[in-house]
Every structure is written in C-alpha cells, then in structure tokens.
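## retry 2 of 3
previous attempt timed out at serialization; input unchanged, resubmitting
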Amino acid sequence: MTWIVGLTGGIGSGKTQASNVFASLGVPVIDTDLISHALTAPRGLAIEAIRAAFGDEVISASGEMDRKKMRQLVFADPAARQKLEGILHPLIARVALASISQHADAPYVVLVVPLLAESPAWISRCDRILVIDCEVQTQIERIMKRSNLTREEAVSIISQQASREARKAIANEVIVNESSIEHLTQQVTRLHDYYLRLASQSPNAGAPV
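## retry succeeded, writing output
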C-alpha cells in the first residue's frame, strides 16, 4: 500500500491551507472534496444519478448540482443525505484510490477527507491521521467571513459534522490552527519531515494500492 496520511478537520479549521503547504513541499495531495466537486460539475460522473434520485430541481441550468439546494435538502432530511452519500461515496473512493495508485513512487501522499472521523473505511486505509483543529468560535467566524453565512447557518453546518473530540480521538497528530498562516506552515513543515522518516521505515512504502 502507498503510505497515506489522512488529513481532516472541521469546516473552517484550515484543512485547505494545510494541504496547500504539503503540496508546496512536493507531497501529492488527493482531496476528496475536490473530487466531489468534479463529480457534481456539469457532465460529472454523478450528475445523472443525482438527477434520477432527486429530480431536475437540484440540477442547475448549467448542468451542475445546485449545492445550495442540495445542502438545504440533506440538512433537513437524513434519508436524503444517505441517498446522496450512497451515490457519491463509492465514486469518490474509486477516483481517490486511482489517484493514490498514480503516486506509488512518492514517499507518502496526503488524503484530505473532511468527514474522516465518520468514515471507518477511510480511517482503515490511513497510516497516520492528522487533524487540523481550532475552537468552534474560530470556525464560526471563518465560515461567516468566507461564505457570507449567518451565525445560525454556520452553527448548523458545524453541528452536522463530528465533534472536535471525535476527530481528535482518531488523530495521530493534531495541529492547532488559531494563529497565522506562517505558524501553520511551520507546523506542517515539521510534520512533513517526520512523515518522510516514518514512510521511509514502512515496509509498504512505495507498494501499489
């Protein structure tokens, strides 16, 4: 198996910033959120299955999934959420695993899974798990600022995800991201050196997925 570092964190924690630092250090980064966006873009592999399951009203005029309408639907209806996940998760896994296999020569890859704590199958595939953590109030402020959402909307999104405690319970390493991007970069860089050493000692490093 290719050596995999699973990277996760709550919305607004700084996962993307952290993964960008890993990428700048030459580490292959496979982001399941980006895969999901591609699958639900115009002519994406999931579009017709979503249309069949939920109707034309959740597909925009441009042919992509209307994320706002779908978010409202799955937040209000757990059955709808399960139906959407049943469509997307197998496709995301297929694309992600294919991407990982293309980097068999890399010392390690970073697999970004926002809902890693809720995904036992992904947890079992990771050699290490890195959680990007911050206070809930920090999450709320970041979400409101970047997405122009109300406090109530931000709190609702956070409440749909695993708790900080649940994420930290699966972590091998935790980065607290309450400060500057420079501080985050320093922490990620230190971990990069650590992961290089661990991966080099793994008997499975460089083997195919």
